[in-house]
Specification:
The structure is a homodimer of 343-residue chains. Chain A has 343 residues and is an alpha/beta fold. Helix content of chain A is 43%, strand content 15%. Chain A has helices at residues 5-12, 16-23, 31-44, 50-56, 78-93, 106-118, 135-141, 169-182, 198-213, 230-243, 255-267, 301-318; strands spanning 62-68, 97-103, 124-128, 147-150, 162-167, 188-192, 223-225, 249-252, 277-279, 296-298, 325-327, 330-332. The first copy, chain A, has a 6-stranded parallel β-sheet, sandwiched between helices. A 4-stranded parallel β-sheet of chain A has the order 7-6-8-9, sandwiched between helices. The longest helix of chain A has 18 residues, at 301-318. The radius of gyration of chain A is 26 Å and the shape is elongated. The mean pLDDT of chain A is 93. Chains A and B meet through helix 4, helix 5, strand 2, helix 6 and helix 11 of A and helix 4, helix 5, strand 2, helix 6 and helix 11 of B. The structure holds a DNA duplex (30 and 30 nucleotides).
Chain lengths: 343, 343
DNA sequence: CTTTTCTGTGGAAGCGTTTTCATGACTTGA
DNA sequence: TCAAGTCATGAAAACGCTTCCACAGAAAAG
């Protein structure tokens, strides 16, 4: 039915080997033979079969993006879209395609990834937001396929094939704590992401450690899981603010959750920052345009994606390990945090 | 090196055919043979090669998501992330993987897609945001592969294999025009997306036609391309508002662009809605939490993704055409539009 | 006790490429 | 003029699986 290399060969009066050589720009083929073959290919509308090709050579130029959801919900966080877009641009330049897995079952994911690697379907992996229990990386480290983790991974896991690109979540959130305390806040709550991911753990821990360093009691009840969406964060914030009226500030571990806090404050008739201060994280498009503009930390999401992809490709091509990299962030002091010191 | 079906067969003392049958749950294999084979497979850590498998059968269970960028910029619009996430969930349930192409060269894209189809690498396509010049669909209609377009496509293109899922952009924007006029606005500007996509064209045309129906002169200078990002929209809005001081309302064809308008208004010391009214489109997470809350039209993005994916899979599986579907939207009247009639 | 029908299994031909090796023809250098 | 070296090409094996066909042996039917 579909034209194959064999048919082309026959029509052009040459062997399959020659046709193959023409396709792969092998130098040892006479110009007239080449053009003859090319014209037959055009005439027949011949399209090479990537599968067959992959089977006899070193497979496909794909990279797998694994995006571990903490819930069964599609994450509406703009972070993921942006970062996937950035990776996509670099992939496109390198003539690679993206395969996307959004899974919330780690074992399934491991099995699928192993199968893809074994089948030479992918040449590298980008792991978005790694879990604290990192079985996935432990298993995949053994496959010698380059992996870049956008985020942190188990520090005891040493591998030539795994590299991390991240921002310093712990330090940033430690600094947020410092700032909040400096502004006179001693009753601080936190709406965070589910704690089975490093990023959430580090952000929470940074804040807590900073509070402890200033001898502020950390009330565990004031640290609540705000899920992944505005709505879940809203519910969590409502709860938090109702049951802890002494709170003067809330740290939301990303600006989507801050949106939930804004919504809760509005519905409770709490003014920001007069009645409750809010500190966010990530600095999304809308953050500066909220009322009041959200104080947050700017994460270079686009760069995170670009740099990760670049590192991945240089590992794939040069087969040498890249260095881990910590990207700089920048505090965006706007007006959602009140200074309690000057009344 | 890697264990193949042949090695398994040898170790288990059976033929390759039998091993294959075991893997594919063929009924005609004795229980003891089956368990023998399975144990050898486990012992050898055998993983089937998807490529080889695909080559001899009907290929892969992948669907291709094509996401046509209008610029070279990664689109930061939350719309895409959300919709891809939704499609991903349905795909996961059906045991399909997602391949993502974000391309801005249509010819390249056509060639790549044809190659993937020819190689049995994909079973269906989701096209996000189709171009007005729809060469892509025209060419691909001939391949008999199911395609769902999220958005509109050339109505003259009839195909058993193409189905569209969309909202009624034209009508919604016509209604927006009506509303604006009813509120007393007669000098209306518009910040829209690049006009090489149906969605932008329809939204703009809806507004224009509504204005014309009310005998309001449409000033082409007040319809400007706001690109794809907050920043480009901001620049466009700044320009628009500076050079057309008589404007009392601006329609932004999506809420990301509305963000740009808010920013411009703020920087020009224009109050919303007192000095300038803003109507958005899409209703993103942040829209209700802006100050003032943005009047916009709620698009069921998640449903758009889910329904598209469902239709695609039923076309793939049942091989029968699904009906086009128009999803309902809902106006969200908030407070970014002033009523000029009651002062 | 034959003949027919199942059943479980093996052999081998695909699937569509790439690539190694062999083979002639044609140069080149002494 | 002949041995050695290029060069363009073809034959065939390999990549790892599926599946059609054939074939025994067992079960069912006459």
């Amino acid at each position: 039915m579909k034209p194959t290399i064999q048919l082309v060969a026959k029509k052009a009066g040459v062997s399959m080997s020659t046709v193959s050589r023409v396709m792969n720009n092998h130098p040892a083929v006479l110009p007239e033979t080449r053009s003859k073959v090319l014209s037959v290919m055009k005439e027949l509308d011949y399209i090479p079969n990537q599968l067959a090709r992959g089977l006899s050579t070193n497979g496909f130029n794909n990279i797998l993006i694994i995006f571990t959801r903490s819930s069964t919900q599609a994450a509406d966080n703009p972070y993921f879209g942006n970062i996937i877009g950035s990776i996509g641009m670099v992939a496109e330049q390198n003539d690679y395609d993206l395969i996307l897995h959004s899974n919330n079952n780690e074992d399934d994911e491991i099995e699928k990834a192993l199968s893809m690697i074994n089948s030479k379907l992918i040449k590298g992996i980008v792991l978005l937001s790694s879990r604290t229990n990192n079985k996935f990386l432990e298993v995949l480290a053994g496959t010698r396929i380059p992996i870049v983790v956008i985020g942190k991974y188990n520090p005891s896991l040493q591998s030539e094939y795994i590299v991390s690109v991240d921002t310093d979540n712990y330090q940033d959130c430690y600094d947020i704590g410092d700032y909040l305390l400096q502004m006179g806040h001693t009753h601080i709550g936190c709406i965070h992401a589910p704690l089975n991911h490093y990023v959430a753990v580090d952000r929470v821990q940074g804040l807590k450690d900073s509070m402890k360093a200033h001898h502020i009691t950390v009330d565990e009840d004031c640290f609540v899981d705000g899920g992944d969406t505005v709505d879940t964060a809203y519910m969590a914030a409502l709860n938090l603010l109702c049951s802890n009226q002494q709170l003067t500030a809330v740290f939301a571990t990303d600006d989507i959750k801050a949106l939930g806090v804004y919504k809760a404050a509005r519905n409770m008739n709490l003014r920001i920052p007069e009645d409750i201060s809010v500190f966010g994280h990530n600095d999304f498009d809308f953050s500066a345009l909220l009322t009041p503009p959200l104080t947050t930390v700017r994460v270079p999401i686009h760069e995170l994606g670009m740099i990760s992809a670049s590192k991945l490709f240089s590992m794939i091509k040069a087969e040498k390990k890249e260095a881990n990299q910590m990207l700089p962030t920048k505090m965006q002091f706007r007006s959602s945090v009140a200074n309690l010191n000057k009344p």
